[in-house]
Structure formats: C-alpha cells, structure tokens
Design a protein that fits this description.
By secondary structure, the chain is of the alpha/beta class. It has 16 helices and 16 strands. The strands form three sheets. It has a seven-stranded parallel β-sheet with strand order 8-7-6-9-10-11-12, with helices on both faces. Helix 3 runs parallel beside helix 14. The chain starts with a helix and ends with a strand. Bound molecules: nicotinamide-adenine-dinucleotide and (2R)-2-hydroxypentanedioic acid. The site of (2R)-2-hydroxypentanedioic acid has 8 residues, from loops.
Length: 466
C-alpha cells in the first residue's frame, strides 16, 4: 500500500499548475484534500470542493460599469480594470493569462489576438454589438462569448427621438450660433414631427422601441426588415428598402454590422429618398456611406443628419476623430449645416450601463463557476442545475469538442466508471459542448479523467469543476 508521502507526491504532480493544461481550474481545494488525507491517512468525508475563485483572472477594458466589477470582486476573482481599450500589442500581452475579458465596442478581439489567449474561457461584450469579436475563431478555440441583447435599447431609442426633433427644428445649428452670440430666430424649414413619417431600417429591439415612442409623438411609422416582424401599434412593415426610402421623412438605421449592411445607405439610396428628408445612424459606422451622405447634403437632397457611430472610432476619450486619416471626410461633414455628431453615446446612460454590468457580469460568472452557456452568441447553449456541493465526490465535466460523430461514445466510455448524474450536450456549427455531473469520483480519478478527455482527438477544451 502507498504511504501518505507517496500519495502526496502523486497528488502534487496532478496539481502542478505550471504543468497543468490551460483550461484546468483547480488549486487549493485539492491541496486541502491532500492535507486532510495526510493527517488521517484515510479519505476525508467531503473530498472534493469547488475550484478556488481566487485563481480566476478577469481583464476589464473600456470602462465597464462598476456593477460588473462588484459582481466579480464578490466572487473573489482577480480583476484588472482599464478605462479605455488597449493598443493591439498591449492587448496581446494582457490577454495571455486571463480567464475572462470584458470589453465594449472598441476592442477588436481578432483571431490574431485570440490565438495568444492561453487561458481564456469566456468573453463578455458589455454592449449589444458583437461585431468587434471574431465569434467563429472564439468558438473554435472553445471560448464562449456573451453580450447584453437589450439593456441599452431604450437609451438608444430615446436618443433618436431627441435627434429627430433636433433635426426637424435645426436646434443644433441655433445652439451653435448662440454659443457665439448670434441671434438667428428662424422658422423657415423648421417642422413639427407630428404627422411626419419615420422609416425604421431594422425592426429589432431598438427599432421596435423607437417605433412605439415615435407613434406616441404623432408620427407615422413604417419599417423595413429582412424578416417578417409583428408590428407594434399602427406601424407598418414595407417589403423593400426602396418602399421605405420613398415614403419616409426621417430614416433611422438599426441594423447590425454585417457584410449585407455595409453602405446600406449610399448614393443610390440617398437619391431614392424624399427631397429634404433626414438620416439618422446610431447602429454601426459601416452602415452609412458618409462621403455619399456629404454629397447628398451638399446637393440639398438631405436636409440634416445625426451620426452617432463611425467607421473608425477613436479608442479613448480625448482622442481626435479627425486625426485618423481614414476619417478624411470628417472636416467636410463638420462644415455642413444641421448635422448632429455624437461620440457613440446611444447606449451611454447610467441606467443602461449598470443593467449591462449586472447582466453580462452574471452571465460570465455563471459560465466560469457552473459552465452554463445559456445566452452565449457563438456557442451551443448548455446548462445543468447548479452543481450540488453537498453531494459527495461530484465533479462537473465541461467538454468542448468538434462536432463530429463518435464523441459521445468515447466520452461516456471515459466516464463509465462513475455514476453520470446528469448530462446535456448540444452543438452549433462545428462546435459542440457536453456537460455532465458525475459522482463517485476519487481525487486520483480527476487527473486521469482530465488527461483522457484531453487526449481525445476531437477535444477543443476541457474543464473539470469540483
Ligand atoms: N449607438 C449605440 O450606442 C448603440 C447601442 C446599442 C446598439 N447599437 C447597434 O444597433 C444595432 C441594432 O441593435 P438591436 O438591438 O435593435 O438589434 P436587433 O438584433 O434586435 O435588431 C436588428 C434588426 O435588424 C434586422 N436586419 C439585419 N440585417 C438587415 C438588413 N440587411 N436589412 C434590414 N434589416 C436587417 C434584423 O432582422 C433585426 O430585426 C446593432 O448594430 C447594435 O450594435 C448601437
Ligand atoms: O458601449 C459601447 O461601447 C457600445 C454601445 C452600442 O454600440 C452597443 O453595441 O451596445
């Protein structure tokens, strides 16, 4: 029979974190098991404990809200926080060791950046848009991505209402004039919004909210979307973008950044709009072709525009929009009358940011602690009831793998010496995710289980929670 010292050595090897595979999250619990074992030379009654949350490192960029920092700190995670995004070389350095990263819209998590992330298990986009992340590269590396699908929708819709009125009344110009002392009391080409038609492109969370607010103010609402969507109130879906452009006095974009929505509004679309109509873009900077908009405004076709998002946005506050040579149109746009420019603040309210912090912070915590991927945008959605910590010697197996035949047979064979209490598996594209709670697991089994799962040819990432 092995002496306690021999067993201690075996456990230490199993635990050696420097040699341990990147997705294993376990340190002190097993050490405490070991201590008990060495004292008594018999198995402790409660051998396995959850991994130590103090080992989890989280990198938060772009001034993610305090509510998220509080959630992570309360878990005991190590949190590193930055107000702005980071240049790519610094990001690559920082991302190497962290288990989770929280970003907003500026940080580009490309395949090149992600390939340096040795321990990363999850990405939190503390916003709606996820176009800044290479979602496929993340999934193929076993990294789940979460966002906040609607916590800032109302804030964006309210900003757009403000912009519609501001454009209709040329309020921005009057304010700029009076800031330099010029009194310019005019009513020519200033309108009420009551009775005017708002055309919404993209009738999702934001478009639908906007529709309700606009109707409450007496506007007629039409919308265009690539899918059939139930209209709210008296709004009406039109079947083509041209239908919308030819009828609307105000056109507001609320679509995601996709190859199909790149330059969705460009010269031909501006030409199809009503004379003297207005353009609003608070979606993504790729959706409206700004040089074409400038030409349409100079020609008098478009009477005003409100732009909140840009193709190349500064990385932090204080940086100049004009200094990026890719924004060479910026000074020409600024010289035009009745143009409202805002620095991507559609979702920037206290209410939205704190709700997003709670929502995404909680999703990340659930994924790290329990493996639950419900709500992930790039990943199979898999969840089991929380691991029953009072149950003896139970381990949760999280196994992310290629979606190919034969995996379940192999994995269940590896687990077959244990009681599989519950199991759930699902796939999305090329990636599948299996979660199983197994009991009757001795601490010595854990290393062996881990190694066997890691050696399977389809493995993307393995985590064992206990
Ligand atoms: N300015 C900001 O601060 C801010 C804040 C939040 C969201 N956003 C952006 O707003 C956009 C919309 O957000 P949401 O929450 O309403 O999204 P959503 O997914 O709920 O709705 C988007 C809608 O656009 C439709 N759509 C997609 N492609 C289309 C196309 N080619 N033509 C017409 N319709 C199309 C979809 O079918 C969907 O109904 C996103 O890009 C998001 O990133 C910006
Ligand atoms: O807060 C941000 O940076 C992004 C806001 C918005 O564009 C979103 O996608 O939710």
């Amino acid at each position: 029979m092995s002496s306690p010292q021999q067993i201690a050595q075996t456990f230490s090897q199993a635990l050696n974190l420097s040699g341990s595979p990147s997705h294993a999250v376990s340190t002190s619990p097993t050490q405490s098991y070991l201590a008990q074992y060495m004292q008594n030379n018999k198995k402790p009654t409660k051998a396995l404990k959850p991994f130590s949350t103090g080992d989890i490192k989280i990198l938060l960029l772009e001034n993610v809200n305090q509510t998220a920092i509080d959630i992570f700190s309360n878990q005991g995670y190590q949190v590193e926080f930055y107000k702005s995004s980071l240049p790519e070389d610094e990001l690559i350095e920082k991302i190497k060791d962290v288990h989770a990263i929280g970003i907003r819209s500026k940080t580009k998590l490309t395949a090149n950046v992600l390939k340096h992330a040795r321990n990363l298990v999850v990405i939190g986009c503390f916003c709606i848009g996820t176009n800044q992340v290479d979602l496929e590269a993340a999934a193929k590396s076993g990294i789940a991505v979460f966002n906040s699908p609607f916590s800032n929708s109302r804030s964006v819709a309210e900003l757009v209402i403000a912009e519609i009125i501001t454009l209709a009344r040329q309020l921005g110009d009057r304010s700029i004039e009076l800031h330099t002392g010029t009194w310019n009391k005019v009513s020519s080409k200033c309108w009420e919004i009551r009775g005017k038609t708002l055309g919404i492109i993209g009738y999702g969370h934001i478009g639908a909210q906007l529709s309700v607010l606009a109707e409450a103010m007496g506007m007629n609402v039409i919308y265009y979307d690539i899918i059939m969507i139930m209209s709210l109130g008296n709004s009406k879906q039109v079947s083509t973008l041209d239908d919308l452009l030819s009828q609307a006095d105000f056109v507001s974009c609320h679509v995601p950044a996709t190859p199909e929505t790149k330059n969705l509004l460009s010269a031909p679309q501006f030409a199809a709009m009503k004379d003297g109509s207005y353009v609003i873009n608070a979606s993504r900077g790729t959706v409206v072709d700004i040089p074409a908009l400038i030409q349409a405004m100079k020609a008098g076709k478009i009477a005003g525009a409100a732009i909140d998002v840009y193709p190349h946005e500064p990385a932090k506050n204080g940086e100049n929009l004009f200094s990026n040579e890719l924004n060479s149109w910026a000074s020409e746009l600024c010289s035009l009358r009745n143009v409202i420019l805002s620095p991507h603040i559609g979702g920037s309210t206290e209410e939205a940011q704190s709700a997003i912090g709670v929502e995404v912070g909680s999703a990340l915590t659930k994924y790290i602690n329990e493996g639950s991927s419900t709500g992930a945008v790039n990943f199979p959605e898999v969840a089991l009831r929380a691991l029953d910590l009072d149950q003896q010697n139970t381990v949760r197996v999280l196994y992310i793998h290629q979606n190919v035949p034969g995996v379940l047979k192999t994995v269940n064979n590896i687990l077959s010496n244990h009681n599989i209490e519950k199991q759930f598996t699902d796939s999305r594209g090329d990636v599948a995710y299996l979660m199983a709670d197994i009991s009757d697991v001795d601490i010595i089994d854990i290393k062996s289980l881990y190694e066997q799962l890691e050696q399977t040819p389809y493995k993307i990432a393995t985590r064992l929670l206990y």
